[in-house]
Write a structure and sequence with these properties.
Elements lengths: L1 H29 L5 H23 L8 H24 L2 H8 L2 H11 L7 H18 L10 H21 L5 H20 L8 H27 L2 H4 L6 H13 L5 H31 L1
Helix pairs in contact: 1-3, 1-9, 1-11, 2-3, 2-8, 2-9, 3-4, 3-7, 3-8, 4-7, 4-11, 4-12, 5-6, 5-7, 6-12
Length: 291
């Protein structure tokens, strides 16, 4: 039965990767016609609509001890989405996706610098290797350097900062309330950001925005379900399935062919992430044994 659950979790993660690929394709289709602020606003709005019935029944919003912090974290999340959407709109999709995988590396680095968490030598090595992978993809100083890829990198950094805040906030708040507050605050902040650049989407654009919101909510549900069926250490590397999925979709929809450097850089980041995660798990296990 355990093997069947693990196999089902792998299939669910694969399905989530396909949904993430369609998400990137939709953003590219909307590029030029819908402002990134507007895309991010509708993403949050439709995500909120998907979980609103659940929130009304189970979440006590006013019981949260972190009201101002919720708004700050939502602002970071909104900014990370906008940065990623800008990268999707202008940069090669496979390159932008590969750089987005650096988020766990920046998260590890931030936990070390700001939360004063101890790190193993393998974690430091993983962080350094991750930056090597970034340089391989971005190719600074080369004639093929694409500055739009820096937005994908910025999105990964902003997401990592948001996750660092989440680590602390989760100590005194519930998961349901953290999700609810994040969506509500993102909708409010997104509306404020979208109003100055607002252009009413066409029916086709609105349909794509609604589809993106539904796919985003479904993707989150699938990932949550998968991690409930198998260990995080086993499933986390499967997130890298997004890269070949996005690469295939970028070729089918837009004729983009990912260069060899993308795959080399992505493989380097993949190994670096595993090394950093493995070192962090080893350190936690040693701490628990000593305790």
């Amino acid at each position: 039965m355990s093997g069947q659950r693990t196999g089902a979790a792998v299939l669910i993660m694969a399905a989530a990767s396909i949904l993430a690929g369609f998400d990137a394709v939709i953003v590219r289709m909307l590029a030029g016609g819908v402002h990134p602020f507007t895309i991010a606003f509708f993403r949050a709005l439709f995500g909120l609509c998907a979980v609103l019935p659940f929130m009304m029944r189970r979440v006590q919003l006013l019981a949260s001890p972190y009201r101002a912090a919720h708004v700050v974290r939502a602002g970071l999340k909104f900014a990370s989405l906008v940065a990623l959407f800008i990268a999707y709109a202008h940069a090669p999709l496979a390159d932008a996706t590969a750089l987005n995988f650096t988020m766990p590396i920046f998260l590890t680095l931030g936990a070390w610098l700001f939360l004063k968490e101890e790190v193993a030598p393998s974690v430091i090595g993983g962080v350094l290797a991750g930056f090597v992978g970034v340089m391989i993809i971005v190719r600074p100083g080369a004639g093929t350097f694409d500055p739009w890829l820096l937005f994908a990198l910025a999105g990964a950094i902003l997401t990592a900062v948001s996750q660092l805040m989440l680590r602390r906030m989760a100590l005194r708040d519930t998961t349901d309330r953290l999700v609810a507050w994040n969506l509500l605050a993102m909708v409010g902040l997104g509306l404020l950001a979208a109003v100055p650049v607002w252009v009413t989407p066409t029916p086709m654009q609105l349909g794509l925005l609604a589809l993106q919101g539904v796919l985003g909510a479904l993707n989150m549900t699938l990932i949550t379900r998968a991690f409930a069926m198998a260990s995080a250490s086993y499933l986390a590397p499967l997130d890298f399935l997004r890269l070949p999925v996005v690469a295939v979709m970028a070729f089918l929809f837009f004729g983009e062919v990912a260069p060899v450097t993308t795959w080399i850089g992505a493989a380097t980041i993949f190994v670096a992430t595993l090394a950093a995660a493995g070192g962090a798990r080893l350190r936690r296990r040693r701490f628990e044994d000593e305790g």
